[in-house]
Amino acid sequence: MKHDTPDGILVDNYPAAHRSLRIAFVTETYPPEVNGVAMTIARIVEGLHARNHDVQLIRPRQDANDSAETAVRFHEVLMRGLPIPRYPNLRMGVPSKKALVQLWSVHRPDVVHIATEGALGWSALQAATHLKLPVCSDFRTNFHAYSRHYGIGWLYKPIMAYLRKFHNRTQNTMVPTEALRRDLEAGGFKNLTVVSRGVDTKQFTPLRRSQALREQWGVAPDDLVVLYVGRIAPEKNLPALIAAFEAISQKDARAKLVVVGSGPQQEELQQRLPQAIFAGQRKGEDLAAHYASGDLFLFPSLTETFGNVTTEAMASGLAVLAFNYAAAAQLIRSGENGMLAPMDDTAAFVQAAASLAADLQGRRRMGEAACQTASALDWSSIVARFEGVLDSVIHRAEVPYRSPIVGVRQGAV
Q1: Separation of CA 80 from chain center
Q2: Measured at the alpha carbon of residue 146, what is the angle toward residues 144 and 149, in degrees to the nearest 5?
Q3: pLDDT, tens digit (0-9, with 9 covering 90-100), for 207-216
Q4: Pairing of strands 10-12, 2-4
Q5: 3-state DSSP assignment of residue 206
Q6: Domain range holding 146?
Q7: What is the average per-residue pLDDT within 322-339?
């Protein structure tokens, strides 16, 4: 059964589980790695653990000093991993079906949830199928769209075929927006469920605004700070960011661009925008202060499945300009709590950026409304819906199974 939230966010109203579940959660990225997927996965894992479920987190070892954590009802199992080309701070899993079959034969979970579709995720799917375990998945990253930005657009169809094969072998695939659900369904994906994403409004809040930080940037109290947060990479459509800020600069020479993040195109972007401030990767309260100390948030990406930075900027009280896509399309009422440009219309994006830059009162009004919208995106309700989907998958399982609870030892496989 589906219903609309007060903000018009379509969600699937699955009942929350009323018993403790043993959940094997498989992911190829997790904090302290810095990316939106890792952050949202951590929120879900922490939320499930807080709701009294046994969580077995299976992920690649991130470096030589990485060690498995263990606590009551929470255990990590570390697998072998390899660095991802062009993304040295991230690791990818390697084929591990045999190890997972051995692990789950001894410590059998009630359900396997696969958050990423790499080699480790595929191995988890094979192992779960072999053991007749209920299995569900997330569609979190548009790898198929990324291929077009790295000169390998010819891989689009093979990647889509792989993703479709992967997800259709699970009993349910969770997606963050109704628009993405429709797109994937049209592409042959089955058993799709909308489970949106939340934002930590205690961390991301206008109260984090820091005049001291703005002084470090060399801006006066009334100067305009334009903010971008995200990977500095081809898939983020950075030419639109450059064009938008150049248009802003023509009308307001004192405007300052602050870029938070890192990536393979940083040197190129620094050359194109030599006066911009490149703050690097930021975390926690420091990241929140960077958000709240800006005035206008530009997000030009066209490859997001959701776009967590959109909700973080909104919660921080910023007027957000984005394309009519992903989280922005779901949450922004253009002209009221932010601004939307038509999909892939760079000229409209640039024009809207210049208009917002010149409208101080409009930006403030939109920022206040954006903060109000974000206040409804509570992570606890998202975790409850996620939990409900897991329970539904278990109930539809091919072979119902319930073994005595056994602990999972700390360590690596």
Answers
A1: 24
A2: 130
A3: 999 999 999 9
A4: antiparallel
A5: helix
A6: 2-198+378-412
A7: 96
Spatial distance between the Cα atoms of 120 and 84, rounded to a whole number of angstroms? 13
Segment 343-384, tens digit of pLDDT: 989 999 999 999 999 999 999 999 999 999 999 998 998 999
Is residue 108 helix, strand or coil? Answer: coil
- Condensed to tens digits (0 to 9), the pLDDT of residues 167-188 reads 999 999 999 999 899 999 999 9
Whole-number average pLDDT of the chain: 88
Number of domain units in the chain: 2
Give the ranges where 25-142 is alpha helix by DSSP (H): 36-50, 97-106, 119-130
Identify the pLDDT of residue 410. 42
Q: 3-state SS string over 327-375?
A: HHHHHCCCCCCCEEECCCCHHHHHHHHHHHHCCHHHHHHHHHHHHHHHC
The CATH number covering residue 124 comes to 3.40.50.2000
**8 Å CB contact between 228 and 288:** no
Q: How far is CA 32 from CA 38, 87, 196, 208, in A?
A: 8, 14, 23, 22
Residue pair 149/62 in contact (Cβ under 8 Å)? The answer is: no
- Asked if 77 and 192 sit in the same domain, the reply is yes
* Torsion-angle region of 379 (φ positive above 0: left; ψ -120 to 50: alpha; else: beta): alpha
Tens-digit pLDDT profile for residues 207-265: 999 999 999 999 999 999 999 999 999 889 999 999 999 999 999 999 999 999 999 99
Six-digit token string for 180: 């993405």
Which residues have C-beta within 8 Å of that of residue 313, sequence separation ≥ 6?
204, 227, 229, 291, 294, 297, 299, 320, 370
The answer on 34 and 182 residing in a single domain is yes
Instruction: Quote the CA–CA distance of 307 and 312 in Å, as a whole number.
Output: 9
DSSP letter at 284? H
Could you tell me the pTM of the whole model?
0.82
